[in-house]
Amino acid sequence: MFSKRMILVALVIVLVALNIILLTITGKHTQAPSGLGRGALVIVSPFQKQFTAFFNSVKDTWNQYFFLVSTAEENQRLKKALGQSLEQLNRYSETEIANDRLRHLLDFEKVIPRPMIAAQVVGKDPSAWSKTIIVDKGIRDSVRQGAPVVIPEGIVGVVVEASARYAKVLLLTDPNSAVDALVQQTRARGIVKGGGADFCVFDYVLRKHEISVGDMVVSSGLDGVFPKGFRVGRISEIVRQNAGIFQKVSVTPYVDFEILEEVFIISEPDYESPPGEL
Amino acid sequence: MIYGYHLMLCLFLIIFQTTLLVGGGTVHLYDLLAPFVVYLGVYHLPRRAIPVLVLGGLAMDGISGGVFGVHLTAYLWMYVGVRWAIQFLQAGNVILLPLMVTAGIVFESLVVAFSAVVLASAPWPVESMFPVVSAQVLWGAVTGPFLMLFFIRGQKVVDRASKSFYAEKGHLRKP
User: Is the confidence at residue B39, as pLDDT, over 60?
Assistant: First the structure.
């Protein structure tokens, strides 16, 4: 009744359909099913670490021996910047003391600082469609899924998968990323989502809020992932449409994701120690 | 020995493209395993190729933050497609071989782009598909055939080493 060729074509169609259904199911999750992703981290990441270490040592040698000329100039610039920073630090110290005194007067609970784990970037996602990095710290170093990842410049992303010694970090610019944030100056709130390329979109900012290009966006702490006050980026574009209650805002992250080498993973606060000792 | 060569090559390509090649111009970076899959399809039977493809696909999916299973899917279907195509085409032809490599890169880029635009939980805009895929295909068409030559040359070296090893082993066994 059916020829061999027809059966083969039908079989291929069924397999393709089945394949698309399976991909649709896995596409709804950022974590790989049954720890398969963790398996890949265990096998491939040690090699990535060695390869990155070798590459970095070659790069360091190059930088140290061939770019000494610019060091003196850079030293002068850094000394000047250090002087300015020390002056700024002094002002911040005064503010912090005043803040502590006022919090005590108002009987506010003391904020418990969360320990940070330094990690090295050992690999990056080669695909143009997903923005992740692999770091050399894992469950053994108290890194957990959902832990925020930062650097002094600002927010990097969040840990989406962790094996014993390595972890996969979803970058802020990935469309799956989201950070509850606010504009530092005006306190206008919204959600910063990855724009895919080198920018983010700041969604749900009400039209009534006055914001301008160049304003700093920081984490609000309301998402329960990122602590309050971490820098996200600065507003690079604002589009106020005639209709609608929100404005379209683009944010340029402070972090340069192309040159990331070391990051800090924020772990859970150590509640066992008395708050006063932290 | 050939299994070892394929596994080492697969691992090297994955590490190379996730450590050294990332940085500037990531958009142009196509998956280096695509020419490797075409090479396996043209020169190796399923029992030699499938285990390497499955391991390579799972490793890529584990490292990548995209839809899990998309690399594995692309590699297996690409392999099936190449095996089917070489029934009609002269695979060793100097023009057809680069064309097959380019077709493989086109297929792989489209499958991964489709997964990001349609299947992902936070899909990319459709308009972002064209510049990325076209850049990947262009770079793949230029450099992919050279990678293929590198794989073929490597296989010849491994075959020669394997033959001389077994010949020496046989020679030693003779009384």
Answer: yes
Predicted model pTM: 0.81
pLDDT tens readout for residues B150-172:
999 998 998 888 888 888 877 77
B119 inside 8 A of chain A by CB:
yes
Would you say residue B22 lies in a domain?
no
- In a mutagenesis test of the A interface, which of B8, B9, B15 is the best target, namely the one with the most A β-carbons within 10 Å? B15
Do A99 and A136 fall within a single domain? no
Quick one: A190 and A217 in the same domain? yes
pLDDT in tens, A130-144: 889 999 999 999 898
Interface test with B, best of A8, A127, A166, A248 (most B CBs within 10 A): A127
A257 and A149, same structural domain? yes
CA-derived radius of gyration, chain B: 18
Boundary of a domain, candidates A50, A83, A106: A106
Q: Find the domain containing A91 and state its range.
A: 68-106
Residue B104's closest CA among B150, B37, B43, B10? B37
E-only strand ranges, chain A: 116-124, 132-135, 148-151, 154-162, 167-171, 178-183, 189-194, 200-206, 216-219, 231-239, 246-253, 262-266
In a domain, A58, yes or no: no
Asked whether A65 and A57 are in contact (CB, 8 A), the reply is: no
The crossing angle, in degrees rounded to 10, of helices B46-63 and A36-66 is 70
Residues of chain B in contact with residue A129, where contact means CB-CB under 8 angstroms, are 66, 112-113, 115-116, 120, 124, 132
Residue A203 covered by a domain:
yes
- A49 to chain B, any CB pair closer than 8 A? The answer is no
What is the pLDDT, as a whole number, of residue B21? 65
Q: Do both A74 and A208 map to the same domain? A: no
Residue-number span of the structural domain to which B84 is assigned: 2-11+31-152
pLDDT of residue A112: 63
Kindly determine whether residue B18 and residue A125, on different chains, have CB atoms separated by under 8 Å: yes
Do A132 and A264 lie in a common domain? Answer: yes
Q: Domain tally for chain B?
A: 1
Mean pLDDT score of chain A: 84
